[in-house]
Amino acid sequence: MEQSNGPVWSPQPRQAIFMSRPEYEALYGGAAGGGKSDALLMEALRQVHIPHYRGLILRKTFPQLTELIDRSREVYGRAFPSARYNDSKHCWTFPSGAKIYFGSMQYTKDRINYQGKRFDYIAFDELTHFTWDEYSYMFSRNRPGGPGTRCYIRAATNPGGIGHGWVKQRFIDPAPPMMTIRRPGEKPRIFVPARVYDNHILLNNDPTYLDSMQMLPEAERKALLEGSWDSFSGQVFTEFTDDPEHYYDRRWTHVIDPFDVPAHWRIYRGFDWGYAKPFAVTWTAADEKGRLYMIKELYGWNGNVDTGCMMEPLAVAAKIKEIETQDPLLRGKVINGVADPAIFQKTTGQSIAEIMEKERVYFTSGDNSRLSGKMQYHYRLRFNEDGIPMMYVFSNCVQFIRTFRELTYDEKHVEDVNTKGEDHLYDAQRYVLMENPITAPLPAKPKPFRPDPLDLGLNRR
Ligand SMILES: Nc1ncnc2c1ncn2[C@@H]1O[C@H](COP(=O)(O)OP(=O)(O)O)[C@@H](O)[C@H]1O
Ligand SMILES: [Mg+2]
């Protein structure tokens, strides 16, 4: 890839290691921004001087490919001025006749698109977005169309995503990074870790990159910044703080002493339906600045962990009405109900929502985007520099406090809350948060300098 004024692209040291591996399969994995996608793209060019060479670069969905295609236009186009990109076929043709395709596999059935085709080089970007079936199917497509090419598979990914489990099992667990994994009857494979500190070009071009990563919740930050494969385990809301010493001044604690909320604050009621499992109701007040205060809860359980009290919808609605007419903080208020969309389904004639309307307890259908809802919690729990978060919980909401801090990550959907946990009050409140979404808080002050493990002057700015 030489031009008169020097190379169009040259690998950074860690990319060079990944690109020199002899194993049949190699995964370049870990931190976001480590230079993984670039490495996959450039690796595809290695054999374009061979006329029958065919390369394929995959992402899960087609729109996600746009970035890769744009990047290929920059680099392929400059390295091979007479190479041509065909927009409708998503294919580059090189002067020798060699081709590199871009493809997606949004649904497992899209595998059919690759049936009967063959590729010498197959690259999966963001491998954890794919299932094992999708990945392993493509092995049958990894065949030469003539002599002299090397056939191999490459992938890159961050931890997290639907395929986190199988990718970890295949590449991370069997051996330390950089050690070839050998299994009887299988071709060798290897995991090459990527760290954001390895990508000096990115860190120099975008000095705020690390700051924006520092703003992520703990588990996401460990996954995306450090490339940790184990961060999605254990407690989800590690930032949740219950400090009785500060209940009175409301600083650096999420749990606070109840107080008389001003009459003009808006009130929301979140609802998650359950019968054999607990149902859950939260009441939340919003101040003028949009800060939320969970003032009351109703947990429909029988006193045993995660076990419902088997109350019929009409009785639940009557209970809600009773609370709203008696509680001094709620009496006489306009209350905006928002609930699990499932209560609007008509399975046996009347929906749960319709039944509850008989008691004049009304709901709108909540936004059930689970990961967005989880991020709303993280955003709201973040303390500003004075120790004030965007969401408080009154100390009388004891079941919310108990169950919320116990929530763990899901083993399959590793970034999400484990729905087998006691997540009912969490869900009820999630609908309230999604009614009042906020944007990610920004760092209040410039962050102190971070360690620069390679001493390459990254902090000189
Ligand atoms: N060797 C390189 N030369 C020039 N730019 C690079 C190189 N490696 C990575 N970059 C740039 O760094 C940024 C992040 O790289 P990318 O491959 O997208 O990271 P990742 O896929 O690991 O998140 C991109 O803008 C990319 O073009
Ligand atoms: Mg990438």
Order of helices and strands: EEHEHEHEEEEHEHEHHHEEEEHEHEHEHH
Q: How would a textbook summarize the main sheet?
A: 8 strands, mixed
> Which sequence of strands runs across the widest sheet?
5-6-7-4-8-9-3-10
Q: DSSP strand (E) fraction?
A: 15-25%
Bound molecules: adenosine-5'-diphosphate, magnesium ion
Describe the 3D structure.
The chain has 461 residues and is α/β, with parallel strands linked by helices. Helix content is 26%, strand content 18%. The protein is built from 13 helices and 17 strands. It has an 8-stranded mixed sheet. A 7-stranded mixed sheet has the order 11-17-14-13-12-15-16. A two-stranded antiparallel sheet has the order 1-2. A hairpin with a 6-residue loop joins strand 12 and strand 13. The longest helix has 18 residues. The radius of gyration is 27 Å and the shape is elongated. Bound molecules: adenosine-5'-diphosphate and magnesium ion. The site of adenosine-5'-diphosphate (ADP) has 16 residues, from helix 2 and helix 6.
